[in-house]
Design a protein that fits this description.
The protein has 291 residues and is α/β, with parallel strands linked by helices. It has a domain of 46 residues. 42% of the residues lie in helices and 21% in strands. It contains 11 helices and 10 strands. The strands form 2 sheets. A 6-stranded mixed β-sheet has the order 6-7-8-3-9-10, with helices on both faces. A hairpin with a 7-residue loop joins strand 1 and strand 2. It binds adenosine-5'-diphosphate and magnesium ion. The site of adenosine-5'-diphosphate (ADP) has 12 residues, from strand 2 and helix 1.
Length: 291
């Protein structure tokens, strides 16, 4: 499902001494099935932006169209919108409230008025997507670890089978293994379900690995928008916005400075590893032939 944002402005507490112009003339078109990473320094407007996409915030000015629905129009069907656009908040585990995991995950589908069989199927499917064993179904979510609780919360959104999935810092606060797992699952889900995914993160590494396109927010505006290689080639601009290129990009840059010829668009560890291994193998081949 495509998203079109035009002239979007949002002001918190307008007219008060605490007034904050959090979004300034944001224009964006996101195609159906894109996986977009949204990065930016704390306070740059990422969370404000995505909360507009399922109608939690109403713009101060501007229009938003999702699929064929203009959601900023008076009388737009918010219930329908929230079934199509699934939003996983930052630290979503704080919003678990039911006594069993099953009840928590089935909350959305139940509100959609689905049959019990359909609800069961969706709960199982969603648990499977996030790597939660079905044997947990009747346990209390409060017995789980932080990472597992987060999976329950994400499963609750997936059980609605949204066309657009928006995740606000889904890996924040998890240990490296937990981060890795969540990211891998989101990527797998995207490939399988072919949904549109917006992934908010302040981690360059995470975004570099997962997204096909990166939008950089700065002080309420879209500062950069492009493919990861394009974005990470602008180290200076990123630094001026309080961001940095992925560590591996810095390493590759340093190697290039020392005269090793490497592609400057390497921004994942996997690609760097493969490239360096190939280079070493070629070198050894050549040396083998020479003697
Ligand atoms: N509920 C709120 N009331 C007033 N100001 C807010 C509120 N939420 C966010 N802001 C302000 O709006 C700006 C953008 O915040 P936010 O969208 O949360 O940024 P990000 O998610 O990129 O960290 C910040 O300056 C923040 O302080
Ligand atoms: Mg935020």
């Amino acid at each position: 499902m495509a998203i079109e944002i035009q002239g979007l402005n949002y002001v918190y507490m307008e007219g008060s001494p605490f007034e904050k112009h959090a979004l300034k003339d944001v224009n964006l078109t996101i195609g159906d099935g894109e996986f977009v990473g949204i990065i930016g320094h704390t306070g740059s407007g990422k969370s404000t932006l995505i909360q507009h996409l399922n109608g939690l915030l109403q713009p101060s000015s501007g229009t938003i169209k999702i699929g064929d629905m203009v959601i900023t129009e008076k009388g737009a069907d918010m219930k329908k919108l929230r079934q199509k656009v699934g939003l996983v908040f930052q630290y979503p585990e704080h919003q678990l409230f039911e006594e069993t995991i099953y009840k928590d995950i089935s909350y959305g589908p139940k509100n959609m008025g689905l049959s019990q069989d359909e609800i069961d199927e969706r709960v199982r499917e969603a648990m499977n997507y996030v790597g939660l064993s079905e044997k947990y179904m009747n346990r209390s979510p409060f017995e789980l670890s932080g990472g597992q609780k987060r999976r329950v919360a994400i499963a609750g959104v997936l059980a609605m089978r949204p066309d657009v999935l928006i995740l606000d810092e889904p890996a924040a606060g998890l240990d490296p293994a937990g981060r890795e797992e969540i990211l891998t699952q989101i990527r797998a889900l995207y490939l399988e379900r072919k949904m549109t995914v917006l992934f908010v993160s302040h981690s360059m590494e995470d975004v570099a690995r997962a997204a096909g396109r990166i939008i950089v927010m700065n002080q309420g505006s879209v500062a950069l928008d492009g493919k990861p290689a394009e974005i990470f080639s602008q180290a200076e601009a990123l630094r001026s916005m309080g961001l940095d290129v992925p560590q591996i990009t810095r390493l590759i840059d340093e190697l290039r400075r020392r005269g090793i010829s490497l592609d400057s668009s390497i921004y994942t560890i996997e690609k760097a590893k493969a490239t360096i291994q190939m280079m070493l193998a070629n070198k050894m081949n050549r040396e083998g032939k020479e003697c």
